[in-house]
Amino acid sequence: MTTANMITLLGVRLEDPSKDLFTDATLYLMINTAQRKLMQLLNANALTDFQVVDTNNTNSLDSNLDERFVALSDLSPAPFGGVHGIQGIKKNNSDTWYTKISFHQYMDWSNGSVAMSYHNPLYWIRGDNIYISQNDAIDVFYLKKPTDVANGVDSEFNDIFHDAILELAEAECWRTVREFERQNDAESRGLSMIALHNENTPAMDHYAGSVPYDTTGDLVIMQRVTNG
User: Fold this and answer.
1) Which domain holds residue 69?
2) Which residues of the chain have pLDDT under 70?
3) 76: closest CA among 96, 57, 54?
4) Same domain, 52 and 138
5) What is the per-residue pLDDT for 203?
6) Residue 214 lies in a domain
7) Residue 211 domain-assigned?
8) Looking at the structure, do residues 87 and 113 belong to the same domain, yes or no?
9) How far apart are CA 183 and CA 172, in angstroms?
10) So what's the pLDDT on residue 14?
11) Are residues 129 and 63 in the same domain?
C-alpha cells in the first residue's frame, strides 16, 4: 500500500475524507507514530525488513575500563531502540560470532570473582557502547529505525502489516479529539492483528532460550572464587 493510499483510507475510516478535521500533516505524524509503536510490539524476528548489518567497525579504547568498544552512534543507519535493537556481533571477515554476556557477568569475570571458559569472544553492553573482549573490527547485526512516511515516501513495512499500522494510527487520531471509545476500538483491532502476527512468527531468539539446539558449551562459568 502506498502512503497516498494509506492517507486516503485513514481519512475514510476517520469519516473525514476531505481532511477538514485531520490534515495530511497530522495523518503523516500519526502513521509514523504507529510505525514506531508497531516496531516495539512485533516479535523482532518478524521485522525482516529492518534487519541490517554495519560491517568493519573499528573499535576504540575505554581508558576507564581498559576495554575495547564500538559506539552505537557510529552505526549507520541508526539502530531502533538503541542497544535493544542489537541482534548479533561477528568478527569482520570471519565466521566467528561473539557471545553476549551481561555487564554484571563482565564485572565478576574482570575482578576475578568467577573464572570463565568460552569458545567464542564475548561482548556486553554498557551505556550506548558495545564492548568486546578482543581487539577486532566487528560486523554489527541489528534492527534499524523505520524511515518516516511522507509525500512520495512509502512505508518500509511489508504490506502484511499496513492494516495494523492504520488501526494504530486511527487510534492516535481519535485520542487527539478525546473520542476514547473509538480510540480503544481501533487500538484493540490493531493489537489483535499484532498478536496474530506474533503467534505466526517462529521464536528463534538465543537469549530467550528458544533455540532448537544445545548452547550449553558456548559459555561456562567454571567456578566462583571465594578465597581470592
Assistant:
1) 48-144
2) 112-118, 203-228
3) 54
4) yes
5) 63
6) no
7) no
8) yes
9) 7
10) 96
11) yes
Does residue 129 sit in the same domain as residue 72? yes
In terms of domains, do 132 and 160 share one?
Answer: no
Residue 112: predicted pLDDT: 63
Q: What is the pLDDT of residue 224?
A: 44
Q: How far apart are CA 40 and CA 29, in angstroms?
A: 17
Residues 135 and 68 placed together within one structural domain of the fold:
yes
Length of the chain measured in residues: 228
Which grid cell sits at 138?
566487528
Residue 35 CB: number of other CB atoms within 10 A? 21
Candidates 208, 205, 62, 212; CA nearest to 141 is 205
Query: pLDDT value at position 104?
Result: 85
pLDDT at residue number 207: 43
Amino acid found at 30: M
Q: Do 136 and 54 reside in the same domain of the chain? A: yes
Confidence (pTM): 0.80
84 shares a domain with 9: no
Residue 72's identity, in one-letter code, is: L
Question: Which one-letter DSSP state was computed for residue 151?
Answer: T
- Tell me which amino acid residue 35 is: Q
pLDDT of 213: 40
**pLDDT value, residue 172:** 97
State whether residue 175 is helix, strand or coil.
Answer: helix
- Number of domains comprising the chain: 2
Name residue 216's beta-bridge partners: none
pLDDT digits (tens, 9 = 90+) for 37-56: 999 999 988 999 999 999 99
3-state SS, residue 115 = strand
| Nearby residues of 192 by Cβ (< 8 Å), 6 or more positions away | none
> What's the pLDDT score for residue 221?
45
